[in-house]
Design a protein that fits this description.
The complex is a heterodimer of chains A (284) and B (320). Helices cover 72% and strands 0% of the residues of chain A. Chain A is mainly alpha-helical. The longest helix of chain A has 41 residues. Chain B has 320 residues and is mainly α. Chain B folds into two domains: 59 residues, no CATH class; 235 residues, MetI-like (MetI-like fold). In chain B, strands 1-2 form a two-stranded antiparallel ribbon. The chains are: A mainly alpha (284), B mainly alpha (320). At the A-B interface, helix 1, helix 3, helix 4, helix 5 and helix 10 of A face helix 1, helix 2, helix 4, helix 5 and helix 6 of B.
Chain lengths: 284, 320
């Protein structure tokens, strides 16, 4: 057997392997995307024929479903509520986490490490364990069934503080010293010197908080009473409970709920990895 | 550790005792303390109100008969725990959760590790890796209610799964309407929505493994599969540990999928602990019972976390 034929046989084996690997991975990607494609296809089928095995129904796509779903259910209201809750939580989490993360990372005060240890320890307690107490506290503070009640109780977990502390610890100590010697105020140092250095961390925290709050279901389910405050997730679940067979409309609603996260993930891919390594979303 | 960091560490240790480090500006700790009080005040207020107090309150409420509306709250000691633990349904629910965790976590790890290996930096044969990573990550960030609705449609008696099975003369499978299939259906759907998290984590870890390790291995004649088991897995093990722990903690709290897909049914064949917690507290208005379940769940998770850390000492390979 000549070395030439051995080489070409190896080449064939290698390209066969290449084809097989690509087929496996792309088939997996298709399976992964299929529920989304099926959602879109169902959202665009006439309501009467929503459950059919055909990918397309007949000759036309029923774009009107989105319009009808929007008119039939208060999706506009749900969307606004979801945005208020998600953006509100992003703002509160950013303010709370950057200030505390900075204090824990760069300021020296008695009991600092013990207090931070307490923060970290709470990360071990599952969020669902505090559901009932949070409800009681929201009632006591008279923020139950209000936007405040939707936003604040979820905004003070230790995760954001922990994440921002990690980022602030990478900043050079000398800059702050120099600014102090120049007589800068502490707030100015924080806002103008330190915060710009941890932009990446702020972005990571903002993206993850938004995605987590946009997907949050259990707390709005407990913390709201009337439909005016329902988030998209809550609205969709109520629609399923009451009009379980309106598949085209439900899929149109689900598509609306999915759009912002899809856009964010595509636009901000590079930040995702950083956040995951810190345990954002609390794992899956 | 660089020398600068260690200087910082020792400085902060000096700060911890409240004494200024010798030879340093004596006013500094004072100024830092006042500044820290200002910077911490917002966070600390919210953290106390919405994290610390609720954790203590969870235990407190579990000792009371605490009706949601009307009625008097009454101290009942361990009665709630007794009634929760002695109810026949509770053990079925614990088994459901163990079934879910026992199937979901390994499946998640197998799928995510396999795809991470196929999309990792070593795999030059696969095209479009950046795009594929986004595709596999999409279900992770999709709101759970929305993805649960998608799967409710797919699992429908006349839905696409049963249609495709029909093409091969199989089925129809009563995905959500039989007590044998309700849990497997939730598990399959959960693997779909969850594996991308660990996959991205593992891909990131793989890019940090130096090429020289693999070069040395291939000189020794190790093929790609051996390299995966002998190099990638051991060097990735700290990250695999982290991912497994997070996945475990999350999966003990599975709720939304079960709520939307089956609402725990048929019977209580797919009821989970958090679903029962929610039902007890907010459907039957028994906050005490709900809190007892919450405390038990937290204990379970703490025990599992502890076990994982014990296991980690034996299985996880750290450098240095």
């Amino acid at each position: 057997m000549s070395t030439e034929s051995v080489r070409s046989r190896r080449r064939v084996a290698r390209s066969a392997r290449r084809v097989v690997l690509n087929v496996i991975v792309w088939a997996a990607a298709f399976i992964c995307l299929f529920p989304f494609l099926w959602m879109l296809s169902t959202a665009l089928k006439p309501e009467a024929n929503a459950i059919t095995s055909n990918f397309f129904y007949g000759y036309h796509w029923a774009w009107g479903n989105f319009r009808q779903a929007w008119d039939f259910f208060p999706f506009g209201r749900f969307l606004i509520n979801s945005l208020v809750m998600s953006i509100g939580d992003v703002l509160v989490v950013l303010v709370a986490s950057t200030t505390a993360g900075y204090a824990f990372a760069r300021l020296r005060f008695p009991g600092r490490d013990k207090l931070f240890g307490l923060y970290v320890a709470t990360l071990l307690i599952p969020a669902s364990a505090t559901l009932v107490p949070l409800f009681l506290i929201a009632k006591t503070l008279h923020i139950y069934n209000t936007y405040f009640g939707l936003i604040f109780p979820l905004a003070f977990t230790a995760f954001g503080t922990f994440l921002m502390r990690q980022f602030f610890r990478t900043t050079p100590e000398e800059l702050r010293e120099a600014a102090r010697l120049d007589g800068a105020s502490e707030l100015w140092i924080f806002l103008r010197v330190m915060l710009p250095l941890v932009r990446a961390g702020v972005a990571v925290l903002a993206v993850f908080t938004f995605i987590a709050m946009w997907g949050e279901f259990l707390w709005p389910l407990v913390a709201t009473q009337n439909e005016n405050l329902y988030t998209l997730n809550l609205g969709l679940s109520e629609i399923q409970g009451q009009y379980g067979s309106y598949w085209s409309y439900m899929m149109a609603g689900a598509a609306i709920a999915i759009v912002p996260t899809v856009v964010l993930v595509i636009a901000l891919q590079k930040y995702l990895v950083k956040g995951l390594a810190f345990g954002a979303f609390g794992g899956r | 550790m660089t020398s600068r960091t260690s200087v910082l560490e020792s400085r902060s240790r000096a700060g911890l005792t409240g004494r200024p480090a010798p030879g340093r500006r004596p006013r500094r700790p004072n100024r830092d303390t006042r500044t820290a009080a200002g910077f911490l005040s917002f966070n600390l207020t919210g953290f106390t109100l919405f994290t610390l107090i609720p954790m203590a309150l969870a235990i407190y409420v579990s000792f009371f008969n605490w009706p949601l509306q009307g009625g008097q709250t009454r101290f009942v000691g361990l009665h709630n725990y007794g009634s929760v633990l002695s109810s026949y349904g509770f053990w079925r629910i614990v088994l459901n959760v163990l079934y879910f965790v026992g199937a979901y976590v390994p499946l998640n790890l197998i799928v995510s590790l396999t795809l991470a290996a196929l999309l990792g930096p070593r795999m030059r044969a696969v095209k479009g890796k950046a795009f594929l990573r986004v595709v596999f990550f999409l279900p992770v960030v999709t709101p759970l209610v929305a993805s649960s609705l998608l799967w409710a449609l797919i699992y429908n008696q006349n839905g696409i799964f049963n249609t495709v099975l029909g093409w091969f003369g199989l089925g129809p499978v009563p995905w959500l309407s039989s007590s044998d299939w309700s849990m497997p259906s939730i598990i399959i759907m959960s693997v779909w929505l969850g594996f991308g998290y660990n996959m991205i984590l593992f891909v990131a870890g793989m890019t940090n493994i130096p090429d020289t390790m693999y070069d040395a291995a291939s000189i020794d004649g190790a093929g790609p599969i051996r390299q995966f088991f002998r190099i990638t897995l051991p060097l990735l093990s700290p990250l695999i540990f982290f991912g497994t722990l997070m996945t475990l903690i999350t999966s003990f709290q599975v709720f939304t999928q079960a709520y939307i897909l089956t609402n725990g049914g048929p019977g209580n064949s797919s009821t989970t602990l958090v679903l029962q917690l929610y039902d007890d507290a907010f459907q039957y208005f028994r906050l005490g019972d709900g809190s007892a379940i919450a405390v038990l769940l937290a204990f379970m998770i703490l025990i599992v976390t502890g076990l994982m850390f014990i296991l980690q000492r034996r299985l996880v390979h750290y450098e240095h």
